[in-house]
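Chapter summary example: a protein plus GLP.
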Amino acid sequence: MNLIITKDYEELSAKAYEIVKKILLEKPDATLGLATGSTPVGLYKLMAADCKKGEVSYKNVKSYNLDEYVGLGVGDEQSYVEFMRKNLFNHIDIDLKNTHLPDGMDADMQKACDRYNEMLANAEIDVQILGIGGNGHIAFNEPGTSFDSVTHIVNLTEKTIEDNARFFDSIDEVPTKAITMGIANIMAAKSIIILASGANKADAVFAAVKGKIDESCPASILRTHKNATFIADIEAASKL
Ligand code: GLP
């Protein structure tokens, strides 16, 4: 795994975009794996600005997102589908038909998981963007999740619910379940960029980069990927 430590969040976003832009210029019909959370927002702003300038087009790009809350969907402000529209899709020339997220609104959640797995099996993600949870989770794969997992329903841990409460009016509104790509789905991407910013990620970054490769830190598996890049700012990297 390549490790890049940047002086701040701005440089972290710029480094991530450098890699993404190269892929998009080489392959205008690339398939992107996208993530939510506050960390990739800087990268998404750079993608939008460059698209506006006409440097990069998303007309032939497809995207697959990592996860969605169970019970939230289009029209719900805190849903990940709305997050993606607000922070990226509405600002680039991507066709919404080519954007995919797991369906958190299906009455039969197992069917929704199976459908997403099938879609992913027929796609090849050129670059998967990831953030990291304060407990080392990737997507919503909490500590203890099998490295062989595929799209599944998870009960969110208390830590993740607390961490994500800032996006909701109160902690009671945070859904307790989510539908998430599994770790095997994530590892199938041709390349992976994982981003971490801020001191609250320092323990997770340490565990992912220097700890044991095991299921207690889901992000540690990325060290076995053939083309993964970990970009951390100096605060997130402070315990390395
Ligand atoms: C959520 C998302 C993850 C994300 C994590 C960190 O739990 N499911 O994909 O990496 O939050 O979010 P942030 O970047 O806001 O710290």
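Key point: The chain is about 30% helix and 15% strand.
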